[in-house]
Amino acid sequence: MGVVASLPVSSAPAEPPVGKAEGGEDALSRLAGLLHRDLEACNRAIVARMDSPVALIPQLAAHIVAAGGKRIRPLLTLAAARMCGYPDAPDGMRHVHLATCVEFIHTATLLHDDVVDESLLRRGLASANAVFGNKASVLVGDFLFARSFQLMVDDGSLRVLAILSRAAATIAEGEVLQLVTQNDLSTSETRYLEVIKGKTAALFSAACQVGAVVAERPAREEQALADYGMNLGIAFQLVDDALDYAADQATLGKTVGDDFREGKITLPVLAAFQAGDASERDFWRRTIESSEQREDDLDHALHLMQRRGAIRTTLDRAARFAADAQRALAPFPDTELRSCLAAVADYTLSRAR
Amino acid sequence: MGVVASLPVSSAPAEPPVGKAEGGEDALSRLAGLLHRDLEACNRAIVARMDSPVALIPQLAAHIVAAGGKRIRPLLTLAAARMCGYPDAPDGMRHVHLATCVEFIHTATLLHDDVVDESLLRRGLASANAVFGNKASVLVGDFLFARSFQLMVDDGSLRVLAILSRAAATIAEGEVLQLVTQNDLSTSETRYLEVIKGKTAALFSAACQVGAVVAERPAREEQALADYGMNLGIAFQLVDDALDYAADQATLGKTVGDDFREGKITLPVLAAFQAGDASERDFWRRTIESSEQREDDLDHALHLMQRRGAIRTTLDRAARFAADAQRALAPFPDTELRSCLAAVADYTLSRAR
Asked: Which residue has the higher pLDDT, A324 or B122?
C-alpha cells in the first residue's frame, strides 16, 4: 500500500507540469472567506446534527467529516443561495441547513466508498475503513443519509427534497455503473462521463440548484445553477482522475495509483489505451483487465500516459467543462460571489497545475 | 457454513416445541388474500420503480426482493390504510406507493446487512453478497433507499416523509448499536430491546403509521397504529432471535446458529448466560465474547438454552409484546381487517410453535 510515485521525468514537452497548486486555490479560500459566517454556522450544524445516543455514530462520522474536507459542496449551496439574494440570518438559515444535508450525503457516499470487496481485501487494499470495519462504514453512512432527509423534511420544501433525492439515486447509479465498468477497457468515453456525472457531478449540481430554490428564484436560474454545478463537478472529477496518476504526493496529500491498482476505468487509462500501440494495449489489458500487476507496472503506466499525452487529454476535457460551468453563470448579475464561483472552476483545474 | 442443527431432544418439559408453523400462519395469508388487489399493485410498483438504465441494479434488487419475502411490511401499510377507510383505486393509490417505499427501505437494509466484515470473511461467513460482492450490495441498497425517498416526494406528504426518514435514521442507529453490543455479554436486556426496536420494530411501526396518514385519520389513530407496529415488530424480532437457535431448518428454511457464530447478542444468549452457573458462563464467554468456537459448541449452546429455558423466556417476552400489539388496535372498529391484524400478532408467535 501507499506506493510513492512522482511523475516520471520525461523529455516529452506535451504533458503539462503537474502537482503544484497555484494561485487558483485562492478561489475556494476566497469563497470560504466571503461566506465565513455561513460556513461556521454550517460547521456547527454538521456537528449538532450528526449527534446520536449511539456514540459510535458521531465518533465515526466526525472521523470523516473532520478529515480535512474543503467543504466544497456545502460552500456551493451557500454561495448559490447568497448570489441569488437569499437574506441574512435570522431570517435566512435554510441555506445553512441544506448545505449541511449536502455535506451529509457526500459523507455518506465517502463512507460507502470505503467499503471494500473481498477481492480487494485479498490484494491488501483495505483502507480508511480498516479502523472501524466495513459494516460500521455502511451503517453510519446510512444514518447520515437518513439524517440528511430528516433535515430536508424540517426545511419543508418538496422541491428541495425532489432535487436531492434524485441526486442521491443518480449517485448510486453512477457508482454501480463504475463498478460495472471496472476492469473493462472497452468502456467508451461517453460511458465514463456517465459514471462521473453520476458519482460526482450530480451532487455538485443539486448542491448549487437548491441555493436558487431557497432564494425562490425562477426556473431559469435554478437550471443555470444546476448546469454550473454539473459542469464544475465533471471538471472536478476529471482533474481528480488525472491526479490519481499525476499528483505530487507530497504537495497534495494524495496517493498516486489507487485507481490503477483497483483497475478503475478513468479517462487517463482510456486515453492511453486507445492511443497505444499493440504492446501498450497488451500492457493495459494485463494490468487493468486481468489485474495482474507487478511492482514497476505503475511507473510504466505513468510513462505510457506521458508518451500518449493521456493526462493532457484528460485536463483538456476538464478545461472545457470548467469553461461551460463559467458560461452557465451568465444569467446572474456580475457580483463578487459570481466571479468567485467562476474562479472556483479555475481552481478546480489549478489543482493539477 | 450451513451447519444443520435440529433442536436437541431433552426431557425438560419447560421448553415449548419449536419449528412447526401452525394455523396462525393463515393470518398473513388471509391478509394477503383480503388485500390481494392492493398487493398485486404493490408488487407491480416494486418491479417498475426498481428499474434503472444501470442493469445491475434491477438484477441485484430483484434477487433480494423476489427472494420469497412475505411482504409483511408493505402488507401492514396496505392493511392499516384500508382499516382506516382509505378509498379504493382509482382515487386511492397512495397506500400502494407507500407500501412500495416501505419494502424498498426494508430491502436496502437487507442488502446492507449482507455486507460482511473482514473478520467474518476470515471465518468463512460471506453470505448472499458473495454473488455480487460487498460493494454492489451497498450501492444497490443506496439506490433503493434514494428511490424510496423519490416515491415519497412524488406522494407529496411531508408527514409521511418525516415518519419514514425518522424510521430510516432509527434503523441505522439500531444496527450500529447491534454492532457495538456484538460479543458483549454485559449487554442489558433493555439495551437489547433498544437494538431490536431500532433495527426491526421502527420500520414495522412506521409502515403501520403511514397507513393512518394517507387515510387522514386523527393523531390518536396514527399513534395507535404506530404502537401496534412497534410492539408487533419487537415480538417478530424476538421470535426471529429464538428461531436462530430453535428453528426446524427443514420446515422454515432458516439456518440455525448464524447469530451464535457471529457472536450476536440476542435474548436467548443473554437469558442462558444470566441463568447459567460458573462453567456455563465460561462457555458463553469463550464462544460469544472471545469468538473461540469449536465444532460441537453450537449443539452445546442449544443444550444450555434448553436447560435454562432461554427460548421459553424469549418467546414469553414475545407473547407479551404481541398482546400489547393487539391491545393497541382497540380504538378501531371491529372489522375483518382489524381481526386479521390482531391475528398477525399471533402468527408472529406461531412461527415458533
From this structure: A324
Question: What domain range is B54 assigned to?
Answer: 25-156+164-347
A320 in a domain, yes or no? yes
Is B252 near chain A, with CB under 8 Å? no
Cell numbers that stand for A132 in this block: 472501524
Contacts of B55 in chain A (CB under 8 A): 180
Which pairs from B9-15 meet CB under 8 Å and 24+ separation? Answer: B10/B303, B10/B306, B10/B307, B12/B306, B12/B307, B12/B309, B14/B309, B14/B312, B15/B306, B15/B309, B15/B311, B15/B312
pLDDT over 90 (residue A209): yes
In whole angstroms, what is the distance from residue A114 CA to residue B116 CA? 13
From A113, which residue of chain B is nearest by alpha-carbon distance?
A: B135
pLDDT level of residue B19 (50, 70, 90 thresholds) = very low
Q: For residues B217 and B85, what is the distance between their CA atoms, to the nearest angstrom?
A: 9
Nearest to B179 among A118, A136, A152 (CB): A136
The percentage of chain A sitting over the pLDDT mark of 90, rounded to a whole number, equals 75
- Residue A184 makes CB contacts below 8 A (sequence gap 6+) with A265, A289
CA-derived radius of gyration, chain B: 20
Under 8 Å between Cβ of B129 and B168: no
In angstroms, the CA A23 to CA B140 distance is: 41
Chain A CB contacts of B172 under 8 Å are 57, 139-140, 142-143, 146
Query: Does residue B137 lie within any of the structural domains?
Result: yes
A34 in a structural domain: yes
Q: Mutate which of B51, B52, B54 to test chain A, going by most A C-beta atoms within 10 A?
A: B54
ipTM: 0.89
Per-residue three-class SS string for A47-95: HHHCCCCCCHHHHHHHHHHCCCCCCHHHHHHHHHHHHCCCCCCCCCCHH
Substitution target in A176, A178, A264 with the highest count of B β-carbons within 10 Å is A176
CA distance B47 to B44: 5
Backbone angles phi, psi at B47, to 5 degrees: -65, -45
Average pLDDT, stretch B45-50? Answer: 93
Angle at A225 between CA A222 and CA A227, to 5 degrees: 110
Q: State how many domains chain A has.
A: 1
Query: Are the CB atoms for A148 and A164 separated by under 8 Å?
Result: yes
pTM, two decimals, is 0.90
Q: What type of residue is A226?
A: A
Q: What CATH number does residue A111 fall under?
A: 1.10.600.10
Q: Which of residues 140-179 of A touch B (CB under 8 A)?
A: 140, 142-143, 145-147, 149-150, 152-153, 156, 158, 161-162, 165-166, 168-169, 171-173, 175-177, 179
Placement of cell 437518513 in the chain: A146
**B-chain residues near A116 (CB < 8 A):** 134-135
* Chain B residues near residue A130 by CB distance under 8 angstroms: 118
Residue B19 lies in a domain: no
What's the confidence (pLDDT) of residue A4? 30
CB contact, 8 Å: B49 with chain A?
no
